[in-house]
Amino acid sequence: MIIDFHTHITAPEIIARRDEYLVRDAWFRDLYGNPQARLSSAEQLIVAMDAAGVDQSVVFGFGWRDMDLCRRDNDYVMEAVARYPDRLFGFGIVNPAAGAEAVREIERCAAGGLLGLGELMPDGQGYRLDDEKAMAPVVEAALDHDLLLLTHCSEPVGHLYPGKGTVTPDEVIRFARLFPGATLICAHWGGGTIFYELMPEVSRLMCNVYYDTAASLYLYQDDIFGLAARWAPGKVLFATDYPLLTPQRVIRRMREARMPEATLRRMLGGNAWRVLKLGQRSACDAEGKEVSAR
Ligand SMILES: [Zn+2]
Q: What is the pTM of this model?
């Protein structure tokens, strides 16, 4: 079972009219102003998954500042999940800075069968992850509806890249301290937060925090896969950041990173299965069907 925990899909009408959206959102322009930066539809993602033997992917749109654009992306994600119910799990995007409007959209996403919120982009959307006032309503709504949270993170050091932002380990750790009940997936290894899990007082705070490997090939040497496996084998979620990277390429590099086969299996899908509560969900579905059949 291989699950890619971090993929972006974009509605075909946004792909077709990309230039208009570059004007509407500065962060989108930063990331996709370069015509080489690819956008992908759900169909294209499925083709890439099939080529790599990926069973299922977590899909989301873009972290827009404007809630109208968030709603539009969420519509597309819900539609994609309805079209590929066995292949895709959807996350919804909201802007926590929008307050009550964001909470209403979280409720709509939960009712539409989405399993989480993300990829939050605090720098692009205009808030901080450790701003208790801004984040509390969103976290509360996520907890009410049993939704996961996934945020963009980045390294406080190293090269700059479009969309890097400033959600660094100190901010992530403060979030975990403020909201210990929320399950948080930190993209891009949490900008290095995973290394601080070697500190006992940090790892105690991070019991509901996980790390995805999105974009890793552009950030770290492949040694990171085997190293992180030594102290956090249950916390690493295979992820590509597709269409930035194809699953085929990332899986090959993870296999070459030489780690115990059981650990690799956990990273590629076992951990995701647990975080997404897939075992419980299929049991619930079966019960739901029984109830409705009566
Ligand atoms: Zn990201």
A: 0.94
